[in-house]
TrEMBL record:
It comes from Phytopseudomonas seleniipraecipitans. It comes from the Bacteria. Transmembrane segments: none annotated. Keywords: DNA-binding, Transcription, Transcription regulation. Belongs to the LysR transcriptional regulatory family. InterPro entries: LTTR, LysR_HTH_N, LysR_subst-bd, WH-like_DNA-bd_sf, WH_DNA-bd_sf. This is LysR family transcriptional regulator. Residues 12-69 form the HTH lysR-type domain.
């Protein structure tokens, strides 16, 4: 039996855990300090006290960023679960008991990747609210919001979108060229592309960039969902413009200069709300904005 464990273990403060998670996700004390409206010195002091409390080093300080130690990685999982549990507990008592139905729209690729966890959390905090999810193209979802058929929707947009005036940007991400690791598709001429259908921001960025560069290409595969595009990439039949977060082994990011590819800029995820949305839709909109804002 261990005899070195204190009789009363210290408690971890929620605001310190939030700071810790922020630094772990951003890789920067300075950026995290700006996000929580504290000085960098104050944030450093919080982490120093946390490390003293646990008796472990949590971050390795490098020249341009900080990264987690193995103990820091272990704590990160606990910290996220503790903060989530705290949020659920507070919401149970402070958030009004909302009821009703929210009609929520999302483009195909966002719906597949990011929404399951978000909707699960919303169901825990608002069990009496039913969320009806519709999946479609951004242009169609905008029309449905305007027609009163949807209360709110997410949108995929690019830098040159005609719809830039609609909705609020809640997340931005770099678009990159992706292909199979060790693949030959990027070396073919004309360049074989796997694209979504007309209206997709990724498609428009890819085609506009190649046209400006004067690079010859052919649309080898077209799919409404990124899973179809990914299948073509995995088979080394084409390359595609993808958000950086979706490029995972055995896919790889293709170097622009090495392969004569144009830069693609960023794409944005926007939130567009209908004018007649109710309180339940407002609650979901707030949770969506927070969840995607954390990914910036």
């Amino acid at each position: 039996m261990r005899t070195d464990v204190p009789a009363a273990l210290p408690l971890l403060e929620s605001d310190v855990l939030k700071t810790f998670v922020g630094i772990a996700e951003s890789g920067s004390f300075t950026r995290t300090a700006a996000q929580i409206f504290r000085t960098t010195a104050a944030v450093s002091q919080q982490i120093k006290r946390l490390e003293e409390t646990l008796g472990r080093t949590l971050f390795l300080r490098e020249s341009r960023r900080v990264r987690l130690t193995s103990d820091g990685e272990l704590l990160l999982g606990y910290a996220r679960r503790l903060l989530k549990l705290n949020e659920e507990a507070v919401a149970q008592f402070l958030i009004p008991n909302l009821a009703g139905t929210v009609r929520f729209g999302t483009p195909f690729d966002i719906g597949v990747g990011s929404l399951p966890d978000l909707l699960s959390q919303f169901a825990l905090s608002h069990p009496a609210v039913q969320v009806d999810v519709s999946v479609g193209r951004s242009c169609e979802l905008i029309e449905r919001v305007d027609a009163g058929e949807l209360d709110l929707t997410l949108l995929n947009t690019g830098n040159a979108d005609a719809d830039d005036s609609r909705g609020e940007i809640i997340c931005s991400e770099a678009l990159v060229w992706a292909g199979r690791e060790g693949g030959l598709a990027v070396k073919r001429n004309p360049l074989p592309l796997a694209l979504a259908n007309t209206g997709c921001a990724w498609r428009r960025a890819a085609l506009d960039g190649l046209d400006r560069l004067g690079r010859s290409y052919r649309i080898a595969y077209s799919s409404e969902q990124c899973a179809g595009q990914e299948a073509a990439l995995l088979a080394d039949l084409a390359i595609a413009a993808f958000p950086a977060s979706l490029v995972k082994p055995p896919l790889r990011r293709l170097a622009q200069q090495e392969h004569g590819l144009p830069p693609l800029g960023e794409y944005h995820i926007k939130l567009l709300c209908g004018s007649n949305r109710g309180a339940a839709a407002e609650a979901l909109a707030a949770q969506v904005a927070v969840a995607f804002g954390a990914r910036r």
